[in-house]
Write a structure and sequence with these properties.
about 0% strand, 12 helices, mainly alpha
Length: about 220
């Protein structure tokens, strides 16, 4: 909006109003936008940029801001568990059922488990928090991840592909890990609602597996 307003013809109404709306006394939306960090830090460069260059500069600015937030001491734990790049979380567009997508999002947001409404089934005196769930549901073993990774489930969710793979070799481990992820989240959801885990959902994660190239077992 600011860039377009500065490139309008001299006889345009907005151009005529710029001397007024560019002042703090006007309390205008133009003045408010001109005080955003991106505009203030890059102001001399912005006049000569086209839309494509501006979007690239904006992406760089947002990425630098995200890196700063992630590297700040005592920052959000949930922010550190998300992808380190500015992008739409793949959970929102990869093929999976509504229930599977909902559980992945709730795990991301710290709502599954929420850490206060239910107790650990193997340690009834302790609430079912995320660290406790990782231990009691044996996530490291079931997901085939080393113990040095504190949160193997979040780590794997951040490793989901950014585009459809073309080689079966790159998806071999996901044919084991993705159903395990869906099954673990199913168990957590049942425990979160104080339900006994009495059944296993059929073909967990099948939509994502069908979207990927088939994994071919090499001949013996």
């Amino acid at each position: 909006f600011l860039l377009r307003s500065l490139s309008l013809p001299g006889d345009a109404l907005l151009t005529k109003l710029l001397p007024h709306i560019g002042t703090s006394s006007s309390r205008s939306q133009w003045y408010t936008l001109s005080k955003t960090p991106l505009w203030k830090t890059r102001h001399p460069e912005l006049y000569s940029l086209d839309n494509r260059q501006f979007r690239k500069l904006q992406q760089q600015f947002l990425q630098a801001n995200l890196n700063t937030l992630r590297n700040t001491p005592n920052n959000s734990t949930l922010l550190c568990l998300c992808r380190p790049t500015i992008s739409i979380d793949l959970i929102l567009w990869l093929p999976m059922s509504f229930v599977e997508s909902s559980r992945c999002v709730r795990w991301r947001l710290g709502w599954l488990p929420n850490g206060y409404s239910t107790y650990c089934p193997t340690h009834p005196s302790q609430r079912l928090t995320r660290p406790r769930a990782i231990i009691c549901l044996q996530m490291h073993r079931r997901l085939q991840m080393p113990e040095t990774i504190d949160d193997p489930l979040s780590f794997l969710l951040s490793q989901l592909p950014t585009k459809k793979p073309v080689s079966s070799r790159s998806v071999s481990t996901w044919h084991i890990r993705w159903p395990s992820i869906c099954l673990i989240l199913h168990e957590l959801d049942q425990l979160q609602h104080n339900k006994l885990i009495i059944f296993t959902p059929p073909n967990p994660g099948q939509r994502l597996l069908d979207w990927r190239p088939p994994f071919l077992t090499p001949p013996i």
